[in-house]
Amino acid sequence: MMKKILLAIGVLVALVLIGAGTAMGVATHKINKTYDYVALPNITRDSSPEGIARGEQVFRAVCGECHAGGGNTKPVGGRMHDFPPDLGTFYSANITSDMEKGVGAWTDQEIARMVINGIDKSHHFRPMPPFPNMGDKDIAAVIGFMRSGHPDFAPEKAQPPRSELTPPGRMVFAFAMGINDKSRTEAVPVPAKSADSVEYGRYLAGSVYDCVFCHSPGFDGSAVKLQHPDTVLSGGFEFDLTPLGGEGKLLSPNITVSETAGIGKWTLDEFKHAMVTGVTPGGYILRPPMPKYRYADDVELAALYTFLRSMKPNDKVVPPPTGGRPKAEPSADPEKMFSSLGCATCHAPGKAYEAKLQGAKGKAPEEVAKWIRNPESFKPGTQMPTYETLVDENNALALAKYVLGKTGSSVSEGTAP
To answer: What is the mean pLDDT of residues 114-125?
Structure first.
């Protein structure tokens, strides 16, 4: 009897291994195959002033966070931390106008296919979350901004390493997230823009700004997540802060209209303020990878709010990161402010952007104080929070002098300006 049981177990294990091996083989094939059969979409740049302005809105909030990141605005590519490290090592590409290292030699249609399908000029898949439902007009606007001659897209020779997927990563991208190999044969319209339109807000949240993907559990695309009202927007997508000098895992927060676990108590004005400045009504800092939507206009933000209010509340409480959430608490003590305002999260010794403080070296304290309160006025597109409503001029000056005192010290190995 025991022999039969052991034999049965052995057969089961063998079948599992064969199944796993087959699945891995299929996943590897899907990742490495050539997708030359995916047609180029009929999308060309929108170079009108309105198109370029709209393209900058979308690019700064969506593309720039991955392809520039780290307080930079030039999309030269770099290390990404949007996925758990168990899935691999991820790098975004250089998308400046450089003819060799960037996308200067790509056609508009090739860029559009990359956005929609995640398939590059050479017809190969890249592990970039695609935007299969972004409207043609918005994609054309993004390409128009990229090809507008803006100095951020001046040619750069930087070439980040290629992303490397682990076996679990190949399985996730091949099956859980899926590879979009469907050609766009018909134009995808953008819903009519209106502040009180649930449809327009859903389009922004699910097809443009990726709120649905990042704030819902699992690796399914936004369209699939929207089909699960019990979990959509309830948070729980895992990010890893360790490579950024953080304390470990960070789970995206619940943004349903739950008044106990989500943002149900936020007013429209509070929502707009948090999205633009990066500071919540409770004074907490929205840290990366959450972008700042400084280029989104009032109508877009109101539409997003309208959509969120239309969705089912979920009372699931998402635990905070190990080191807690930085809360803005202005103080006469600049060292305490450096910590409470969240500056230490990015700029303390050993953190990812420690060396950024060296950019203040030699500047007048008054100038640095103005930067602290309104960084976007000095560097449009920066992801640094806006502290104007939290820190008065005197406290900002005290903090600026404290920061300048740190610029004379050495910078930890491994950080980069």
So the answer is: 97
